[in-house]
Amino acid sequence: MFFVIELQTNKDGTTGNIVTSHATWEDAQSKYHTVLSAAAISSLPKHSAALLRSDGFELEYMSYEHE
Question: Where are the domains of the chain?
Fold first, then answer.
C-alpha cells in the first residue's frame, strides 16, 4: 500500500491536503506524477506532492513555489 499526499498553500497562508491510497506502486506513481503535473502550472504559491509507503517512509517528494 502506498499513499500520495498533495499539499496546497493559498495566497492567504491557509493550507489544504488531499491523501489518496494506492494498492500498487504503478498506481501510486501515476497519481504522484498527475499531482505534480498540475502543481507545475498551478496558480497557488506552494503546491507539493509526496509519495509514502504504508509505514510512512517517504519515497519521493517535490514542491513548486510560484511567486
Answer: 2-65
Whether the CB-CB separation of 45 and 19 falls below 8 Å is answered with: no
In angstroms, rounded to a whole number, what is the distance separating the alpha carbons of residues 25 and 8?
23
Answer for the pair 7, 49: CB distance below 8 angstroms, yes or no. Answer: yes
User: What is the separation, in whole angstroms, between the first and last Cα of the chain?
Assistant: 35
Beta strands in the chain (DSSP E): 2-9, 15-22, 46-53, 58-65
Looking at every residue in the chain, the average pLDDT score rounds to: 97
DSSP H helical segments within the chain, as ranges?
Answer: 25-40
pTM of structure: 0.90
Asked if 14 and 32 count as a contact pair (C-beta separation under 8 A), the reply is: no
Number of residues that this document lists for the chain: 67
